[in-house]
UniProtKB/TrEMBL annotation:
The lineage of its organism: Bacteria, Pseudomonadati, Bacteroidota, Cytophagia, Cytophagales. The chain crosses the membrane at residues 7-29, 35-53, 73-96, 147-165. The keyword Flavoprotein does not apply. Keywords: Membrane, Transmembrane, Transmembrane helix. It comes from the Bacteria. This is DUF4199 domain-containing protein.
Amino acid sequence: MNKYFGSAYQFGTLGGILSVIAFGILAWMEPDPTNLNLIFGYVITPISIFLALKFFKDYSNNGFISFAEGMSVGFVTYCLIAIISGLGIWIILLSFPELFEEIKSSKLEVLGSSKDTIISQVGEDSYQSTLKNVQSMVPFDIGLNDAIWKIIPGLFFTIIISIILRKNPN
């Protein structure tokens, strides 16, 4: 099993740790680091997946990788990124409750300033539901949201990278 997932463990862990570090740095620079951290995730996730698949292909599988192997290694990689990043962000927000309150107030401010636009696009009920959800938000919600937004693009990038790197023995 280590043959298949050794590189996934390494690059998934590295990607998750880099994502948590990026959140910490962005929190120091911005009042609401969540949006910029999502963008960072769109960069680090495909890089981590590519490196995990490339290292698996070149160093563990004699230069070959099937689509199924690519999907398996990629799945483990982006899930590790998501788990480590989500847990790390959750722990940071539990450790620094004032940061969480800043993020929450920033999201409420954006909702308030965009109220008319949001209501015209999705209706009053959707706006009120979103407002209620943001008001009842807890630190775990932010960590979970970050993890989900690592998994969804991770699947997409894994499919593409697995197809590009695929090379089966003849």
